Amino acid sequence: MNRFVNTSSKLPEKEQLRSWIRLAQKGDQRGQQYIYEAYAGRMLLAIRRYLPGEQEALDVLQDGFLKVFRNIGGYTFKGAFEGWMRRIMVNLAIDALRAGKHLQWVGENEEMLDVLSAPVYPDGEDGPEWAGLTQADILEAMERLTPMYRAVFNLYAIEEYGHREIAAELGISEGTSKSNYAKARRNLREWLREKLKTK
Predict the structure, then answer these.
(1) Where are the domains of the chain?
(2) Cα–chain-centroid distance for residue 193?
């Protein structure tokens, strides 16, 4: 991870964050700086799931924070601030995808393993035990997916977009989004099961 972005920042308490947001809404650079320092690492991790190059991800991060601070006056404290900000960052990463960039998945193993452990088939098949997998195993499996499968999987499973939203963002049909997600998930489960057999 970039040496200029702290990925282990402790998140502020709710009231502290509210005061920072209010400062930033007034254009106060201190509020903007506090927010940046608290959230830049988390936002960079979200962006890196889509963009493989560190510099490219940092560019999107900077553009994202500029957009956050330009639009922070419209934030109404309804819903999580981090979710509002993450949506901006992910949308910019998707814009980079539309511009012909490739996708990458990094981090948030627990969320992904929870998604993979859920039944794929209507008959309720149980997910396998994933305890023996490392982050490298998961990254290797994700890298085997096509860029579109990886994008759909990330948007649906990690970012919690609906298939209609994914279809609109990626310029595909809702049915294609559903199909790509199911195929990506099935492929990941198969590859990770094989990986566990060799451990």
Answers:
(1) 14-98, 109-197
(2) 24
